Structure formats: C-alpha cells, structure tokens
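Record filed below.
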Amino acid sequence: MKLAYFSPLPPARSGIADHSAELLPHLAAQADITLFAADPAAVAANLQAQFAIRPLTAYPHEQWQYDLPLYHMGNSAHHTAIYQMSLRYPGLVVLHDVGLHHLIAHCTSGQGDRPGYTREQGYAHGLAGVNHTWQVRTGQRPNDLFDLPLHNRLADVSLGLIVHSQYAQDRVHEVRPLLPLQVIPELMTLQTGQPQPRVFAAEQDVVFASLGQVTPHKHITLMLDALAHLLPAHPHLFYLIIGEVLSDSNLEEAIAARGLHGRVHVTGHVEGLPHFVNWLLAADVVINLRHPTVGETSAAALRAMAAGKPLIVFDHGWYSEIPDSAALKIPPMDMAALLAAMRWLAESPTQRQHMGQAGQAYVRDQCAPEKVAAAYATFIHQLLSRYGVRHA
C-alpha cells in the first residue's frame, strides 16, 4: 500500500504528533508512507531521515500516486489544514476527538467567517444549530464549544473512520450508522526512566500529580480544593503539576488563596518525552479530571498507566472504559467522591501498587504500537477492498 499521511508531527506540541511519531515506524512495516506537512524542513530530524516528506500544497497534484490518504484529526488548531484537505480529498480519518467544535470554530468564526460557522452548525444540527449560533451572536447565551459536536460533515465525506473507544464509536454511529468504522486502541508503550529526584517533597509524602497543559477543563482548582481539605488530617500529601501553565490560568493565585505554598510544585512545560516521564515516575497517583469530554482518549492517562501509576478519573466518556482494576472512577465534579478516592489511595500503598500493575498489563496487552499498527493495516486493506482496490 502507498499511503499519504497527514498529521501534526514533532516538534509540534501536540499529543497527536507524539502518537504519529510512535505509530509511524510500525505502520511503515505495513505500507509505503509519505508524510505531508506544512513545512517539511521543520519536521523532526529523525522523521526526515526515515520518510519522504512533501509539502501539503503538493498533494492535490500528486494524489494519484497513493492508494489512500490517512488523516489524523483532533480538536485543535494544529489540524486546520489537515481538516480542509480531508474535505477536498476524502480518505481514512483517525478521529482522536469526536466533538471537533473547537477546530471548526477556529476555522470559521475564528477567521472572521461567521456565516461559515453558522452553516456548519446548520449542517450538523439543523435549525437548532442555526438558532444556537444566533443566540450566541446576539448575546443570549455563551458559546460553550462542548455543547454541540461538529463531526457530521467529516463523517459524511470520509471513506472510513478509526476511533479509539466504544464511546467514540457510539457517538459517530448515532448520526452515521453505516459508515465503515473500526475501534483501535490508542497506542502506548510501557514507560521507563529515572524518577525525578523528589527534592520538592518529603520522602514520606504521597505525591498526587496532574499531567499536561493546565486548562480550565482539567479542573486543577478542584484538586487544589481537595488538597486543602485533606491536609489538616493528612499532612503527608503533596500535589505535583507537570505541564505548561497557560497565562490566563491564574494558577499561582489559586495556590496562594488556598494556603498551599510548599504543598504544590509546578514544573511548567517539560521539554522532551524522557524528561516528562521522569517527572511522572516521581508521582504516586495521577489524577485526570477532564470535564466535559469531547470524546478524547487521554494520552496522559494512558501514559500514567504505562508508568505503573494508579489513576483517579471522572466516570464518563472513554475514561469509563479504563479497567476498574487500574483506576478509581468518580462522578464528574463530585468533591466528596474525590476526597474519598484520594484518602483511600493515600493510605494504601499496596492498593496503589496493584492498580499500577493492572494499568501496565492493560497497556501491554491492548496498546502496544505493533499491535495498533497491525490493526490499522488490516482495516486499511478492508477499506480498500470495499472500494475495489485490492492488495496482497
């Protein structure tokens, strides 16, 4: 097979770029792959050494050379050009986030194209979508980009979809039940390294950690409230925030307002996956409080399991599909449940160990890159056969 491959690529600060970097060497054993990027010279040197890389603008003239374009689609501005290409030249789409509302808003109203945004809402949701847009424009309601998913047009033009969860499959099949679709787990490898020296915390402290960019929808302040509540009775707790802090997060003020200086350490952006993993290995428990969900599969949660760390997550979306043996699942935004989960894991090192081992077993059995790449190749062959293209 000859595949044209579209995705954010390292060094872009994108989880999907990291996904592609891990997938590509294994998928290359199954197909002849050419990468397409806005600026081929900016792609990481190791990928330049392994793959032919062409500019995005070359694909319209070269598309005949390939059996299929493969598009990785996420809900961020990193995917703007890829989304536009996928609508013009349909292919197989790996849908990492079901919602896509943030991406569509960026491509339309974010560029001054308000009518385009209204059309997308109307296409996906009919008159209700148009009314929603006008209520936002006239100030009658805030524009919550988690409210209405906007994947309908992409599903309509795509030849097939790959998703990473049963939740995502169900959301797509609600609107397009006949679309060829395959659930393939998000890939992940077991994480090894040297734990970052815990100079930020005492040796006896139990370190809870949150991973990735600090955004409002990860509810770091809820975790800070929980920590402040538990500390009087559990003074050995510590909170580690690993990732970039956006300028509008007011994180320092939130920490100070709760009197948590000395109990919270913020790394800021961590350059390079090995360094990031070393910080992760210094934690005892990872807490992932993403809410609401756009149907994402959390690479941060999987990486935590791959590092042998127990999880606390909200019980919705893909997170509900994590094995019970590897994670404590609590109702979204339920402070009492969060406190109980933190207290239980803080007091039970044996339970933390068992949950960490269960998480590693899941990653090893379900998420190994070579297994994921083989599943991709099988579905691609099936899709090509469906459309009359056959390969040995």
Observations:
- The longest strand covers residues 32-37.
